[in-house]
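Reviewers of the previous submission asked for a worked example of the structure-prediction workflow described in the proposal, so we include one complete record here. The input consisted solely of the amino acid sequence. No template or homolog information was supplied to the procedure at any stage.
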Amino acid sequence: MIKGLMQIFMGNQPDKNYLKSNSITRVQIPEIDLNHLFEELNFVIQSEDPLKVQEVSQRILDSLRAGTEITVPVSVSIGRKNKSKYGYVKMLKGREHKMRLFTHTYKRDKPRKAKVFLNTLLHEFVHVYDIENIKLRKTIHCKGFYDRIHHLMELFKADN
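From that input alone, the workflow returned the following structure tokens.
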């Protein structure tokens, strides 16, 4: 948002990619209640079983993909911790996108809260959504991007 305001103030037009991303505040999927998946995720995060976390995470991704135009598979793998990231996604044009999510905090090696883990999963999913559905040249962190994550969190009833 500040980038866009600065460009306007400086006399430059904001990037079309930025304007398009910022103008879309919701993910176009059917309004379904995904709370049961959030509850299941909360349970498996506490169990600290990475395979179960991966299974539930994959079901969440598959549920989200089913309601979109994303035809490219998105797979998830689970790591214990990473010094600087909660997760990331490698987008391979025309092939399977690979998401990696980390379940534990770096310094204390404690399981992340389910809400934080879900937010990371949705953050990475929105990157994929931006490229595959919205057809952005590049997915960027702007107000619209974070509004889309917030919209998804509401579907899980995990944003309170």
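The chain has a mean pLDDT of 87. We consider this example representative of the routine output the project will generate in years two and three.
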